[in-house]
Amino acid sequence: MGTFDGGQEGLVALPQAEVAERLSRLPRLLEEAEQALLSLEKATPAERASLVSEAFRNLHSFKGNCGFMQLGDMEKLSHKMENVLGAMREGTISPNEQNVNFLLKSLDLLKSALNGLIGGGTGAIPSCKGMLRFFDEMVLNAIPAAPVEATAE
What pLDDT is stored for residue 149 in this prediction? Predict the structure, then answer.
């Protein structure tokens, strides 16, 4: 059985079947995160908490799979996005149009990197370091907003 090295230095060799199974999950996770973020614009305050949590969960799962396969750029970027979504849940960052649009553009970068990886590339994100710095500054310099209200279950 073949192994996958993803073309990235330091990537642990994994059985091809396991890599194929894990890679097959990733597009769905990104799509579900994207749908949750797109729905924020028209959501009521009560619905926002659920949507932010849904996006967070999908990115968390994406990040975990990328970490397991040692896909550094995708893991790092999704981790920073997860931090921003966590700050949105806590009320440190507002789920406003500007912040959501930045998350959506970052999802596009993840999709592009994933498509490149599936097509035989490395999965690298050329602008990753700058994006990571921006997300760090976004969290560190956030002006507290009202916490996203949790929905009653």
Answer: 56
The burial of 97, by beta-carbon neighbours within 10 Å (0-12 exposed, 13-18 middle, 19 or more buried), is given as exposed
What whole-number distance in Å separates Cα of residue 77 and Cα of residue 5?
20
Beta bridge partners of 124: none
What average pLDDT score do residues 142-153 get?
55
Q: What is the DSSP letter of 147?
A: P
Q: What is the pLDDT confidence band of residue 3, given thresholds at 50, 70 and 90? A: very low
Dihedral (CA of 115, 117, 123, 127) sign:
negative
- Cα gap 144→66, rounded to integer Å: 31
What confidence score (pLDDT) does residue 33 get? 98
Residue whose structure tokens are 């999704």: 78
Give 16-36 pLDDT, tens digit per residue.
Answer: 888 888 899 999 999 999 999
Contact 144, 150 (CB under 8 A): no
Helix, strand, coil percent content, the chain, rounded in steps of 5? 65, 5, 30
HEC-encoded secondary structure of 72-95: HHHHHHHHHHHHHHHHHHHCCCCC
The encoded tokens of residue 35 equal 């749908």
Look at residue 4 and give its three-state secondary structure: strand
